[in-house]
Amino acid sequence: MTIRHHLDEATILAYAAGTLNEAFSVVVAAHVSVCPSCRAAVRQAEAVGGNLLEQTDAVAVSADTRARMMAQLDVVAPLNTLERSRSITSPITSRELPRPLARLLGGSSLDEIRWRALAPGIAVHDLPLSPQARGHLKLLRIGAGKAMPEHGHGGEEITLILKGAYRDKFGEFRAGDVADLDESIEHSPVVTEDGPCICLIATEAPTRMKGLFARMLQPWFGI
Amino acid sequence: MALAARSIMTPPSGTRSTLEQAEMASLIARVSERRDRLAFAALFDAYSPRLKSFMMKKGAGAELAEDLVQDTMLAVWTKASFYSAEKGSVTTWIYTIARNLRIDRLRRESTVHFTEIDGFDAPDEGPASDHIMIRSQEDRFVSEALATLPPEQKQILMLSYSDDLAQSEISEKLGIPLGTVKSRMRLAYRKLKSALEDRT
Question: Hey, which of A143, B123, B166, B185 has its CA 20 to 30 A from A45?
């Protein structure tokens, strides 16, 4: 998989710092699982966290906690490397889906998704998050050749292409590519003729469509 | 409101970290290979006071902080064999465990765990041994790069890594546009990256 569109460096730092919201974290982890260069970037950004932990002031931990900790070691055995390799090749794997997403779908493939139609050629599937999570995470399927109305974003949005491709003013986005846009960006993606495009999208606020017709569609779109 | 960038990221030059990474890695190896309790106790004593402080800075009370320290150190005990030097220092590895467990605790009601990136590296990506040696120096390069960041970039890093603020919250707190927060983060990251890549 050749990846042409990567994560914003600011997103990489926020992910490494642990401050991205849940929906965004899933999309970032899914992209990172298929993109060695963003994976290396996350590791570099995590080294900042390690450095800060190293420099942080110490606060004494109670003797009681230490004693309880040591007592627990008898009960909990370290995982050995065999278990480790088993946990890495977990049963939830899929050739077409990045692992963090496959986990969230409980092993279903893209063919097994129960889509909800939004408009002709456009369907959505909401993905569950924690009850208190802000932001939304969904799969979107847009038919071949279909154009999305030009829209800006009321907030942040990250899109990972899972299947098919679309084109906008930033170029062509194919499977594995990520569109990490901020709220100032307006674009009008057009899906290529090769087939439907399926994307994983995290949004922070409702997407703001520009045209009147598009605005009327928006509550229905929910994106 | 201007927050003074704290000096926490700039240790006096020439001081050695008390967490000697080669020593930490050998303690991890002893836990992994022989379930060595003394080695684990040494790791606990080295990391738990820092982890407690890390959790408290992000808003945990002392009791919750100690709870999260226990969870983190228990994961160090059970997952010691997962540690691999090519992915970074022991301290960075423990940082990622602590970060993930804290986030999972915040999302406790749900089954959605922090989506960690461990395990994505194909096994055949293993580095040559000189690569590992370079990694062991990485901490020093990171710390030097952080020390030379302009105060406004350092401040943004502190607010995200230490105070746990999202980009939008930093923008609100400092009264600057979100775009400025992001561009400072990008500049800080690029500086760090070039510091690491020039040296390796």
Answer: B123
